[in-house]
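Aim 2, interim progress: modelling of the N-(iminomethyl)-L-glutamic acid-bound target.
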Amino acid sequence: MKLIGPFRQVITLANFPLRGKLSDEQIEIIEDGGILISQNKIRQIGNFEALKSENQNIEIEEIEGMQIALPAFTDSHTHICFGGNRANDFAMRNAGKTYLEIAESGGGIWSSVQHTRNASEEELLKTLVKRIDFLIALGITTIEIKSGYGLDVENELKMLRIIKRAQQQTKATLVPTCLSAHLKPRDFEGSNEEYLEYILAEILPKVKEENLAKRVDIFIEKSAFQPEESKAFLLKTKNLGFEITVHADQFTPGSSRVAVEVGAKSADHLEATIDEDIEFLAESDTVATALPGASLGLGEKFTPARKLLDAGAILAIASDWNPGSAPMGNLITQASILATFEKLTTAEVLAGITFRSAFALGLEDRGKLKSGLKADFVTFKTNNFQNILYNQGSLKAENVYIDGEKVL
Ligand code: NIG
Ligand code: FE
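Predicted structure of the complex, ligand included:
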């Protein structure tokens, strides 16, 4: 057993409910706290001195200076396995160019597909691990990563295999998702429905065989896949044994409904969700995931996070880090900014980037500092946890622990 501390404050989130709004009075703060760890799991949280005297013959890891500790974060939506760069898309968008003009001049998702297809496995692996390390340095120890820039058997499998190789190089938990239904690739001869059939017949069986992903995602949008064809596809993936997540209501409403109807683990984006569908989501167990990084990258409105929480939804916040719409990658900055625009309490933001986003990935063993849970936590050199969001991402994590071991 090992006792780590003393911390000026330990923020446990232990008593937070899975869904709905939260007030900051609900935040449990353990002053002069300690974290007792046994076999990679949290054994007990309490006053450091009390834990020390109650437990003889244990290893003590002394914390230097004033630090606070809280559960490590989960980023439940990223596209960080990619080749190339889309800075020109960003510049063109800001210069007033339309989606079509950008696509016609060689930008858009298709440009990332070409760069990703052309990149070597080693190159993709190296940049992926670098991005994972960037996220760990923010205090994120669980990271979902999508394919979706391969868009044919060979290249989708290549992406998912690289994510699997990256898992060998990091202690963070990587959760791969097959997003072959990101877009019908330009070189596919056939209709949308035929492409979705191709995914079901050619890609997913191999994904299963090699155990490359347990989750399937789809981009439902006017420019990508339509609600009806998507619903039929998702029900079939479910029959194959996959969990489902959906890129929903980013620009046009209607698809979060599909996500709920097929029992998706999460519906992500939701910038355009109408009030009626907010209610529908809130009555379901489908996590509503806000992606403020995409709103900031595109200059579009934010997900109605306040309304979702008030209606009782399970609200997660994730980065959507990708080369096109969300190039920033700093979830802490993004969540802090979402809080100012949507009027979210600190409690709601912390819940959204910890156990609620972990729940979206089906991981209920983390995201709170509570006996029996995975000992993943992050520390900051500050005297008050409020400084984390207040500094909007510029207060850097001091240390990051995974399974009770310091990795940063
Ligand atoms: O989540 N919306 C669709 N997919 C990504 C963007 C991907 C890209 O532009 O490369 C998103 O925003
Ligand atoms: Fe996305």
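The mean pLDDT is 98. The chain is about 40% helix and 20% strand.
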